[in-house]
């Protein structure tokens, strides 16, 4: 009984959100990505992840707007760029101290930071292309 009432509420909320979705294709894309993750979690029996993703999907469906989504990704990019600069400064500091072991460790972290930045930039391009349609 509880499952069916939760499903009904979910369905009603989803239908209520539909008109806003027509104007927010980037949010539709984000919701589809989350749904794919939910399906994967379900297939692998990861109930806790599935529940968290269900909450994330509901949040996107109720509150997401393309402009906000784009701004959030741009903020993430700025933060990642700051992290990269901090990492570069830290590498220079350790190099000056002669701590080559730390330099190598930090350079590996810098590579990961740059890869994440590249991923965020690609995501922004995709979202911008979707919202321009």
Care to describe what's here?
The protein starts with a helix and ends with a helix. The protein has 133 residues and is mainly α. The chain is elongated and about 55 Å long. It has helices at 2-21, 25-43, 47-63, 66-96, 100-132. The protein has two domains: 1-64; 66-133. It contains five helices and no strands. Helix 2 packs across helix 5. This is DUF1090 domain-containing protein. Residues 70-130 form a coiled coil.
Q: What are the key terms here?
A:
133 residues; mainly alpha; disordered N terminus
Q: End-to-end span in angstroms?
A: 42 Å
Helix content: over 70%
Share in β-strands: under 5%
Biggest sheet overview: none
Helix and strand succession? HHHHH
Number of helices: 5
- How many domains, as an integer? 2
Please outline the helices and strands.
Elements: H1 2-21, H2 25-43, H3 47-63, H4 66-96, H5 100-132
What's the quick description here?
The protein is mostly helical and 133 residues long.
């Amino acid at each position: 009984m509880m499952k069916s009432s939760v499903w009904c509420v979910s369905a009603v909320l989803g239908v209520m959100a539909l008109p806003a979705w027509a104007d927010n294709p980037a949010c539709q894309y984000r919701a589809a990505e989350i749904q794919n993750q939910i399906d994967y979690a379900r297939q692998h029996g990861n109930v806790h992840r599935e529940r968290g993703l269900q909450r994330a999907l509901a949040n996107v469906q109720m509150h997401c707007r393309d402009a906000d989504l784009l701004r959030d990704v741009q903020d993430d990019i700025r933060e990642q760029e700051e992290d990269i600069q901090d990492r570069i400064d830290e590498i220079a500091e350790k190099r000056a101290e002669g701590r080559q072991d730390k330099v190598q460790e930090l350079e590996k972290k810098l590579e990961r930071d740059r890869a994440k930045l590249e991923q965020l930039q690609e995501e922004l391009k995709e979202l911008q292309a979707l919202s321009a349609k």
